[in-house]
Amino acid sequence: MSPRSRFRWAWWLLAYASLGLGIVGIVVPGLPTVPFVLLSAFAAARGSERLHARLLAHRQFGPMIRDWQAHGAVSRRAKWLAVSMMSVCAAIMFLTSPKLWMAMTGSSIMAVVAIWLWRRPEPPADRGSR
To answer: Which pLDDT belongs to residue 4?
Structure first.
């Protein structure tokens, strides 16, 4: 029995748990959606062919997952949206955190993520307009 098939149930569980967190992240401010959907696609490729196929065929998430899997790429629109949401969350943290260091820590982490995100390549433009 190969290690991949031996842990198929764990990959399956991770895929569905990550997808669940991604769905919750759609409505909960500060909880990211995209990283959880990408993690779900990664785990589903190893544990649930059916879920993986559904994610790749999804109207909203499919192109993003395919770009990430093929090129490690993130669209410019997704980058702007992510940085905008991180900025809003940072502002909320500065307005509501009981201690300044808490808001500064969270904002610093988001700044590092934003820098990393902007350093990711953009997908090739051969698919037409996005």
So the answer is: 58
